[in-house]
# Entry
Amino acid sequence: MPDFPAPGILFRDITTLISDGPALAATVSWLAERARENGAEAIAGMEARGFIFGAAVAVELGLGFVPVRKPGKLPVPTIGIDYALEYGADRIEVDPGAVGDGQRVVLVDDLIATGGTATAAATLLRRAGAEVTRAEFVIDLPNLSGTRALAAIGVESRSLMDFPGH
# Structure
């Protein structure tokens, strides 16, 4: 989707993937296997599309799901972090009681672009006490260097597919 949500942005829409049952199941299985290989004890997903894939992966693995939310969406005291996006700035929050001290949490999201949201989520979960060293994505936009941003903070990542460009 060209010029969405702002001029110059080429948005990668996953609607057709999530509307196809066998494709969605195969994608979730791929993500779950990567998380299993890395000893996941919980799965975290970033709002909003990370909830789709992250919750499904958590169910497949029989693990808990930790929602990383936009401000004001959690009904408990939270910790938060402000971060830069490809097309602006934002803030995410988490319930610090949602993860155990040293619990191995794997991040799952639909797409990694600049890595702003993913690096903020990893940093925030670490502040809550989690061990975050892995992230799994459906799509990587490698030209935007998000996986390098994650690697710079000690988080390895894999993606099911990538699309050159932005």
About this structure: Residues 41 and 104 are 5 Å apart (CA to CA). The chain has one domain: 15-162.
